[in-house]
Amino acid sequence: MAPPARLLPALLAIERNRGGMGFLSAHVDARDVADIAAWLGAVVNGTVAVGLSMSLASVQAQGAMPGAIAPRFELPTRDGGRVDLDALRGRVVYLDVWASWCAPCRRSLPWMDAMHRRHASTGLEVVGVNVDTREAERVRFLASTPVGFTIALDPEARVAKLYGTKAMPTSVLIGRDGRVLYAHEGFRDADRAVLEALIEAALAFPAADASGAAPPAGGGSPR
What pTM value is reported for the model? Predict the structure, then answer.
């Protein structure tokens, strides 16, 4: 359920400033605050006050400050291609650093695959960065938890260091303009509704490319 267009600038202020409804109350028109609270409440069936504040408070990724340009990287993918973050400009990127030994990743990867299937055609690119040092462990994990989105290989954990990752999984939502919108550590079932709302809000914003034209809705990257 996408938010009303009028509310999107204020909603993204939550992501960029990590201040939740407290930030909005101080910086956004009171009517908009009330409408955002109502919309988010509908999205998460009344649990948004707790879920949103916990999600925002959990952001600790030092290399992924909201509002900053996301640190650029290029990595090989599991099936022989390459993924370059710069090449994804114009799409919303959900970047997730994960490992086979990470228990919450067994829940987060199927959810990310569902997001990929639901939103790829409207501009979402899910990139899972795997930090396993043993290929067999990654292969075994993905055999039992198959996904269709891009899996990048980073056994030296370069991206994890670049983004200041301190927990597994750590996810970063990057806007069409290449700027960090939101970062989140861990994954619980209770996080899903808030993360989905933020993804939908980011997708609702078109972004102009260097020529000033809006990006196509479809597209993709090498796997």
Answer: 0.71
